[in-house]
Write a structure and sequence with these properties.
heterotetramer; A mainly alpha (about 260); B alpha/beta (about 250); C mainly alpha (about 260); D alpha/beta (about 250); B: about 250 residues; alpha/beta; six-stranded mixed β-sheet; four-stranded antiparallel β-sheet; 10 strands; C: 8 helices; globular
């Protein structure tokens, strides 16, 4: 085989092999994390501490972004409706449904991926690079159990909480703009007629899926950091992209499956 | 000729330099020594404007440079080069591109001409054969030699070395010491070396100045330093664990 | 009492941090603009950054846009199925993708891919004294490191926005054809005739402002790193958060200006 | 198994490790005995720290194996490996102190992680931690955080943590890197003191600080380009090969 051909094959092969090894490593890490949780090897106090770090610190960040998004989407939809048929009775209902099914979990997921994903990768990455993870292993503290499990549980729980906070802030912002811009009374805006168990289940599934995927993907980026501060930088960047991308892909998969299976 | 006159510098509550006065004669190799955190690197960074003193004056080649602006310091840095402790080569460029960078930026040389001049400097430090390698491919000792070559591209009259042999194995350290020694003979460059490597201090220094608790404790030839009976100086230069020295 | 004062202190701290970041980034923007007129920056490094920024983010932006288009179709599919208004599909999808969701999601992915990387790279250079080495070689770090990255990010995000819009349409067309049975040619024709040029231009203008913000913020955090590996990690984290906040703020401001 | 010399505690057989296609360790054969203090030296970046990390199996060998008291490390299951690691103390090059814990908690960590039936009670742990902090001259630093300490103090805390359980095998990875002569001597004095506390312990020190190692190490192992090029006592250096003699310098010939 000529060297050029082998070079081309290698060029194609390398990313594929790399992606496969990455997927296998990630699957292994998911398994280890859930086995550790199943075996109850969980330090409650640390989980609560991580909840504070993950949740509390992200509340203002999620609240602002979701409020802005709520403002924008109501403003856009309302201006469209005004041009077609100026009947705003269903404005609030449609908004609530879209927020619960789609925007609140996904945008909150992206924010948590950005903030918490890069945070976990940065922290664990710098612990690997300064050999703290090796020090843990010398004292029989498994890094996955000791570092990743508390963060995973905290992120999953907080993801649900933050989505709810997100929905509340978006709704408040939406209500205000609806009244001031298009004089839609709070009462008409706040109608939950369209909302049913299916929407809540869909939104909840998405939030939980993101909450579990983000810390484990970020944790893997952190645990595989190599080579001083440059390594930590790479791990953090890789985590932000991988977790954000995972949120978007999961959103598509869950929405697609629910549409095909449940028809809604 | 370089003069530090009564330099004071503190970082928040921690006073690092408490009235340091020191002269450096042209053409000599002066070693500034002291324990970690004594302020050796802090003092020399004032010379090229990376730090500004809280009070005191600095003169370089007879001109006062204490309060020059960042932009005005560029002229000073053309005269006075610095080699940092972790060799600071740019990872994205090959070794010869690293050394050619100052030529490209200051003398607007075409890439080919800059490469030629850079290869000559690499030859000076015995690294010409590795010209097209990346910094990542070579060990710390060799990186240090390329960093020295890069600092020499501006043909400075003063060169500052910040702990050039720290972290190097004895062989690589000896080669860097030889390089500093040969610099003085071949080019008559004045070198200021910050170090606490006893082997290289007594192997290369023309003169030694020791900083202890923010002040110059001694400033003299290696022989004078060895003869000193001051207990702190004796403890430091023999590297003894027990003694009056407070760290 | 300490809990309450602690709470207010943390709010005060958050506001102060926000202002310090905003101030720092604006100062940096000022210095960058001053060195653009007359243009005094390293051309070689600019080309390298254009390639570095563009190549690294093109695939991720394209794939993100593909999914954004698909999600938008899925989102309105439920609505369209109930009301049967398939003709509205093209307009609805096109509008949200070009004007709103497209710029935000592509901006976020770009901020993650390039912004975070920029802060990490600059942070590492500061921590390993490479920035001081530049100054010691009498080379101005702003003109050699910062301005090339500013130009690369601003230009590339603008171009990538257009690329993203194309991929989003492709994603939407594919999904609508596969899931809704609405032939993709219909969707595309419908989209073209809904005259969404204004929205497309607004999306691109948003992308340019995002590019400016992301470059200044990520460079600001990169240059202000202290404290080794942990410092680089923390700066990268803060940079990504600040970029995301800036994207949402700017999205609202540009959207509001356009609606005047 | 070659003739089992009773005193041999760790045996390294044909150990190989590859990074990006290059053999950093290329067939290492060594034996470490009880009561020995071994100096591991050689040109920078030639695999010394990598070899050290293979002993407690922090790194897995690509070739060959490490045997401790008859157990082949590569084949041990997790809890067996845990028992083996409990006999190790490791002073890391980058300090590896947990920056989210105080100095006291850092030093107590190895004891608190011991299996329940072996673990001393809380009061005993605290007493030993305070005693060990006093041994390294940092009694005042109990409640401080690692970021508040200087390089030399961080190194001493790392040393206190590694030796809190009086381990049989203590590994030092470049303990005096970047430290001034006086602090370096303090560190090596502590290494010597730690060895005297448990004379049957095996101690391995990786460092470039040949002058200070000379006072502490009985035996030297030099590694160049992934191979052992010298393994003997200080006096044997004078008769060693040219490369070895040049590395150690005139003070040793």
């Amino acid at each position: 085989m000529t060297s050029a051909a082998s070079r081309v094959l290698a060029g194609v092969g390398r990313p594929v092999v790399g992606a496969w090894r990455e997927a296998r490593g990630l699957a292994g890490l998911f398994l280890d994390t859930f086995v550790a949780v199943a075996r109850g090897r969980v330090r409650g106090r640390e989980v609560v501490h991580q909840m504070y770090l993950v949740g509390n610190k992200s509340v203002p960040f999620v609240a602002i972004t979701l409020a802005v998004l709520g403002l924008i989407s109501v403003f856009q939809v309302a201006t469209q409706i005004k041009q077609v048929i100026p009947d705003f009775t269903m404005l609030g209902a449609a908004f609530m449904q879209m927020m619960v099914r789609e925007f609140a979990p996904t945008i909150t997921g992206l924010m948590v991926a950005t903030r918490v994903g890069s945070g976990i990768a940065a922290e664990i990455g710098s612990m690997v690079v300064t050999e703290q993870v090796d020090a843990l292993r010398m004292s029989n503290a498994d890094p996955v159990e000791y570092l990743l499990v508390p963060r995973t549980i905290a992120a999953a729980v907080m993801m649900l909480m933050l989505t709810i906070v997100g929905i509340i802030c978006a709704t408040i912002a939406g209500m205000l703009i609806a009244r001031s811009g298009f004089d839609v009374s709070f009462k008409t805006f706040l109608n939950f007629q369209l909302l049913d168990a299916g929407d809540l289940a869909l939104g909840g599934t998405k939030a939980l899926a993101y909450g579990l995927a983000i810390p484990v993907i970020a944790g893997r980026a952190g645990l595989t950091a190599r080579g001083g501060s440059a390594g930590v930088g790479r791990a953090t960047t890789q985590a932000v992209v991988a977790t954000s991308f995972a949120v978007i892909v999961l959103d598509f998969v869950i929405s697609g499956v629910s549409y095909v299976v449940f028809g809604q | 000729m370089i003069r530090f006159i009564d330099i004071h510098k503190a970082f928040g509550a921690r006073t690092v330099l408490d009235g340091v006065s020191l002269d450096v004669d042209t053409g000599e190799v002066l070693y500034i020594v002291g324990n970690s955190g004594a302020g050796k690197s802090v003092l020399v960074k004032h010379l090229i404007g990376l730090l500004r003193p809280d009070s005191g004056r600095i003169e370089l080649g007879g001109k006062e440079i204490t309060w020059l602006t960042e932009h005005e310091f560029y002229a000073v840095r053309m005269q006075c080069a610095m080699v940092f402790q972790n060799s600071t080569l740019f990872d994205a460029m090959t070794l010869v591109e690293n050394v050619a960078l100052p030529y490209r930026k200051h003398f607007a040389l075409k890439p080919a001409a800059a490469r030629e001049r850079a290869l000559a400097k690499l030859d000076l430090v015995g690294m010409r054969s590795a010209a097209d390698w990346l910094p990542g491919d070579i060990g710390d000792g060799l990186k240090k030699r390329v960093a020295i070559a890069r600092a020499l591209t501006l043909d400075p009259s003063y060169v500052i070395f910040d702990e050039p042999t720290t972290g190097l194995d004895p062989l690589a350290a000896a080669q860097v010491d030889d390089l500093i020694r040969s610099l003085k003979h071949d080019t008559g460059v004045t070198s200021i070396v910050v170090s606490h490597d006893l082997r290289s201090i007594f192997g290369v220094a023309d003169r030694i100045a020791m900083i202890y608790q923010g002040k110059i404790l001694i400033d003299g030839t290696p022989a004078e330093v060895r003869a000193s009976r001051d207990p702190i100086i004796d403890q430091f230069f023999n590297g003894r664990a027990d003694g009056p020295m407070k760290i | 009492m300490s809990a309450v004062s602690g709470f207010f202190a943390s709010i005060g701290q958050a506001v102060l941090n926000l202002l310090r970041t905003f101030g720092g980034a604006c100062l940096l923007l000022g210095r960058v603009i001053r060195s653009l007129f007359p243009p005094r920056f390293d051309v070689h490094e600019t080309w390298r950054q254009l390639y570095h920024v563009g190549v690294r983010s093109a695939p991720i932006v394209a794939v993100t846009a593909l999914f954004v288009g698909a999600i938008m179709v899925l989102q309105s599919a439920y609505f369209v199925k109930r009301t049967g208004a398939t003709s509205l599909l093209g307009y609805g999808v096109g509008f949200t993708v070009f004007a709103e969701v497209g710029p935000i999601l592509i901006g976020l992915m770009f901020s993650g891919r390039v912004g975070a990387n920029n802060t990490a790279e600059l942070g590492t250079m500061v921590v390993t004294e490479q920035v001081d080495a530049l100054r010691a070689l009498a080379i101005d770090p702003l003109r050699y490191l910062i301005v090339p990255r500013f130009i690369a990010m601003m230009l590339m995000l603008t171009l990538l926005m257009v690329l993203g819009d194309l991929f989003a349409i492709a994603g939407a067309a594919l999904t609508s054809d596969a899931l809704l049975g609405v032939d993709w040619r219909v969707l595309v024709a419908n989209l073209i005739e809904s005259k969404l040029l204004d929205e497309l231009v607004m999306g691109v203008v948003k992308a340019t402002t995002f590019g400016v913000a992301i470059s200044c913020i990520s460079c600001y955090f990169g240059l202000s790193v202290t404290g080794g590996a942990l410092g680089v990690g923390r700066a990268t984290n803060n940079s990504v958060v600040a970029n995301a906040t800036a994207i949402f703020m700017l999205d609202f401001v540009v959207g509001w200006i356009y609606s005047l | 198994m070659s003739a089992a010399d009773p005193a041999v505690r760790i045996r390294v057989e044909g150990l190989g490790k590859r990074y990006r296609g290059e053999w950093v360790l290329d067939g290492i054969d060594l034996a470490f005995r009880a009561g020995e203090v071994v100096g591991l030296v050689g040109p920078g970046g030639h695999g010394k720290s990598v070899l050290l990390k293979h002993l407690p199996r922090l790194l897995d060998a690509d070739r060959g194996r490490v045997v401790i008291d008859g157990h082949v490390l590569g084949t041990l299951r997790a809890f067996e490996l845990a028992r083996v690691r409990e006999r190790f103390g490791y002073v890391f090059q980058n300090y590896a102190l947990f920056d989210f814990m105080t100095v006291g908690d850092n030093i107590a960590f190895p004891l608190r992680q011991l299996a329940a039936k072996v673990r001393p009670d809380a009061a005993q742990i605290l007493a030993r931690v305070h005693q060990r902090l006093a041994d390294v001259g940092l009694a005042h630093a109990f409640a401080q955080f690692p970021r508040e300490l200087s390089g030399g103090m961080k190194k001493r805390v790392g040393l206190a943590r590694a030796t809190i359980a009086d381990p049989e095998i203590t590994l030092y990875d470049d303990p005096s890197a970047g430290l001034d002569p006086v602090t370096s001597s303090k560190i090596f004095a502590l290494i010597d003191a730690m060895h005297r506390r448990v004379p049957t312990a095996t101690t391995v020190v990786v460092s470039h600080d040949l002058d200070r190692m000379r006072a502490v190490c009985h035996r030297w192992v030099m590694i160049e380009r992934g191979k052992v090029v010298f393994d003997g006592v200080t006096e044997a250096i004078a008769q060693a090969s040219e490369v070895v003699r040049r590395f150690f310098g005139e003070a040793f010939s």
